[in-house]
Structures are given as structure tokens and as C-alpha cells.
Design a protein that fits this description.
Number of domains: 3
CATH superfamily of the largest domain: Nitrogenase molybdenum iron protein domain
Largest sheet: 6 strands, parallel
Helix content: 40-55%
């Protein structure tokens, strides 16, 4: 197993950033393909969806089968093993608890001053589409991560799109999670065509106001192309993990976490950044050892060989600088003093501190959301939360006394901008008798 190893000298971060931009070489062709899919769905609607499902998912479905019936979701929930059902319920409760506390803190924002009251009110988005990836693995966890915050925010209409299996069915755990969340609209459709359908709408699928959820490069490209038509969450996929370690890090844990990331698929990327040459060598040795008998070995090998890396820096400070430049989805910090990391990491989707906080833990059991910005998006985006499903509206109430106190300021500003009617609209109120 060959994984790219880079020794940085004199803070030369360009070598790593070029490595992580390798996917951009294929982007023009992907963009052209996705643009064609989007246009076909826009013009031909449901028929295009069925044809692309047959082509990309090898599943033959009809218009009547495009929408999953609630009974199918309920049956799936009742049929899955008890331990899986309990795991879904537990995960849902943790997410709800975190999101409800967050919403409570943000909801009660009111500012009072003499004669003026301002409230920042949260209004739920009317309809959202949640994309749940499928293919080489199923992600009921991603369904919970998108649907539960939407429910907490008060969204009335939640639409799920997820690709079918070759026999036309949908993974039972995904269906069970949908039933648990009370989903009424679920469509067995995936890829860029699903994003196009939720944005433009078809005869069967009504359009939504916002689309959220992770996906591969085709899904993310479709979201980008449709950004002018529908609100979006963030660039969320393919998945990323960077581990920062030093001489105190356990090489076996680092290797295991890199493998857990790599098994997502060929397009995931993961890497170790460390000032320790010893750790770098030991991690590569452990990877070669563990992969021999690993589940999903083929995916891990392709991912690590194509998108994996080990970077050796001159100092721990260089590690923080490089992580901040990359702004990855997940950062695991396994150094001697992990609590120092948040002070130095300027951008990341989630920062995980210490040997007992792996990315796999946050994927399932902490209550925090694993739908996070990727591709450097953490420099300007935040991870998904209940706030992603709301609009914030200012509610303002002023009295006569406040208007009187600032009328001169309004006059100065209005005249300076050449908008004197702005001033007159306010001063007219003061020329009238009090009501």
C-alpha cells in the first residue's frame, strides 16, 4: 500500500494544497455532465428521473414507485433488529437535545433601549429537501442529522431523496430512520438528478425552498449549479479527515481513524499532519498491517492511495497553520496538549480533542451534526444545525420619543445620500399631534 508522504521544509504549504486540489482536474467534465442532468430534469421531469435511475443506479422503477409509501417506512422500522432500532432512537434523542438547547439560546434575543425594542425572531423555512447518500454504503445517520434539526426548527414539509438499491428498494435502516422522524415525503431517487428535482420540481415532486445534506462530487456540483434557484446549506462532501499528532500519539489509533475515513469511498480524503518523523513512519507501518484483513479493504486501499497523505512538518505550530489553510471537515487532535488546538485552528468543520474523540464518535453519538463543510468551506460556512432551517427576522417597535431623539441624524444621512423623502417620511410623524 502506497500513501503519499510529504516532508515540508521552510513552511512550504503549497505542496499539500496542490495535492488536495487534485480533484479539480476532473471538475470541468463533471460540471458538464451534471449541467446536462439538471437541464434534462428541468425539461423532462419525472421521465428523466426514471431514466437516470436506471442508468446510474441500475434500478428500474416506475412513476408509481418513485414515492415511498409511509407503510413501507413503518414496516422497515418494525422489521429491523431491536438493537438497531434502539440505536436510532438514542441517536435521535441526542441530536434533539443538542438542537433544542441551541434553538432556545438563539430564540430569545431581545434588545431594549429608551423608546426602542428590537427582537430577532426565528421563522422556520416552509419546505426543505434532505439528501441522504447511498451507493456503496447506507447513511441512516445522515437522515437523522438532516431531518431532526429541521423538525426542531419547525419545518412543516421535509422531503427526503435517497438512491434505490438495484432491486428498486431503499435500505431498510434509512426507511426506519424516516419513520422515526415522521417523514411523509420520501423519493427513491439519488445523485445530481435528485438535487435537480427538489430544486426545479416535477409533476410528482414539488420543489422546496432549501436543499441540505452530504453527497459525492456530482451531488455537490448540482447544488452549486442550482444555487441561484434554491437556498443551499454548504459544500458537504466528499468527506474529509485530518489528524494532528505528535510523539505522544498512538500510531494504531491514528491508522484506525484514517481507515475509518477512507472506507467512505474512493473520493474521501484523509491525512496525518505531524512534526514527528517517528509517528509518520509508525502510522504508515500500521496502515499496511491493518489493511490486510480490513472490512471494505478495496475502498480503503483506493482512497488512501489516491487521496491519503502523511505530512511531516518542522513544528507543531506549522501543523496548526496547515490545518487552518486546509479548513477540513473533521480535525482530530491527538497531541500531548489537545486543548491548545482550538486557539490556533482558525477554520474547521469540527475539532475533536484527545484520543477518545474520534470522528466516528461524532458521526453517531455526540448529538453534534456530522453534515459539515468540506473542500475548505469551513473558512466561510458552519455545520448544519436547527439554525440552518430558519430565517432570522428583525421585529422593531419605536415610540415618538425615540424618533425625536434621532431625527437630526436621519436628516443628515438622508440628505447625504440624496434620499430626502426618507427624512420627510420620518419627520412627518413628528409634525402630527400625538395619537
Amino acid at each position: 500500500m502506497k500513501i503519499q508522504k510529504i516532508n515540508l521544509e521552510n513552511g512550504d504549504f503549497q505542496k499539500v494544497t496542490e495535492l488536495l486540489r487534485r480533484k479539480e482536474k476532473t471538475y470541468p467534465s463533471i460540471r458538464e455532465t451534471v449541467a446536462q442532468i439538471v437541464e434534462e430534469v428541468r425539461t423532462r421531469g419525472d421521465q428523466a428521473l426514471l431514466e437516470y435511475t436506471r442508468r446510474f443506479d441500475s434500478a428500474v422503477i416506475t412513476r408509481a414507485k418513485l414515492r415511498v409509501k409511509p407503510k413501507e417506512m413503518e414496516d422497515a422500522y418494525r422489521s429491523i433488529p431491536r438493537d438497531r432500532r434502539e440505536a436510532l432512537v438514542s441517536m435521535k434523542r441526542r441530536i434533539e437535545s443538542f438542537e433544542e438547547r441551541l434553538l432556545k439560546q438563539r430564540r430569545n434575543f431581545i434588545v431594549h433601549s429608551e423608546g426602542l425594542k428590537i427582537e430577532r425572531a426565528l421563522k422556520p423555512i416552509e419546505s426543505v429537501g434532505c439528501y441522504v447518500p447511498g451507493g456503496t454504503a447506507a447513511y441512516p445517520s445522515s437522515l437523522l442529522m438532516t431531518c431532526v434539526p429541521a423538525r426542531v426548527a419547525g419545518v412543516e414539509r421535509i422531503v427526503i431523496c435517497s438512491p434505490p438499491l438495484k432491486n428498486g428498494s431503499v435500505n431498510s435502516m434509512i426507511l426506519a430512520a424516516s419513520h422515526l422522524c415522521g417523514i411523509k415525503e420520501f423519493y427513491r431517487i439519488g445523485g445530481a438528478q435528485a438535487i435537480a428535482a427538489m430544486a426545479h420540481g416535477t409533476r410528482i415532486i414539488r420543489p422546496v425552498n432549501k436543499i441540505v445534506g452530504p453527497g459525492n462530487v456530482y451531488v455537490q456540483t448540482a447544488k452549486t449549479l442550482l444555487a441561484s434557484r434554491v437556498a443551499l446549506d454548504m459544500p458537504a462532501g466528499p468527506s474529509e479527515l485530518i489528524i494532528v499528532g505528535d510523539e505522544r500519539s498512538n500510531p494504531s489509533l491514528v491508522a484506525r481513524d484514517m481507515m475509518s475515513q477512507a472506507e467512505h469511498g474512493d473520493d474521501s480524503y484523509c491525512g496525518l499532519i505531524t512534526p514527528s518523523e517517528t509517528l509518520a513512519t509508525e502510522v504508515i507501518d500500521r496502515l499496511e498491517q491493518f489493511i490486510r484483513n480490513a472490512p471494505r479493504k478495496a475502498f480503503i486501499l483506493r482512497s488512501l492511495q489516491g487521496n491519503g497523505f502523511v505530512v511531516v512538518t518542522k513544528s507543531i505550530e506549522s501543523c496548526w497553520e496547515l490545518v487552518s489553510k486546509l479548513a477540513p471537515e473533521h480535525v482530530e487532535v491527538m497531541t500531548k496538549n489537545p486543548e491548545d488546538a482550538p486557539k490556533f485552528i482558525r477554520a474547521a468543520g469540527t475539532i475533536l480533542l484527545g484520543p477518545y474523540s474520534p470522528a466516528a464518535l461524532s458521526d453517531y453519538c455526540t448529538g453534534t451534526n456530522h453534515v459539515l463543510p468540506t473542500g475548505g468551506g469551513a473558512k466561510s460556512y458552519s455545520g448544519l444545525s436547527c439554525m440552518s432551517f430558519t430565517n432570522e427576522v428583525n421585529i422593531v417597535r419605536a415610540d415618538r420619543g425615540f424618533v425625536s431623539s434621532i431625527i437630526k441624524e436621519i436628516q443628515v444621512m438622508a440628505v447625504s445620500e440624496g434620499l430626502e423623502n426618507h427624512f420627510l417620511s420620518v419627520s412627518e410623524r413628528l409634525s402630527r399631534r400625538k395619537n
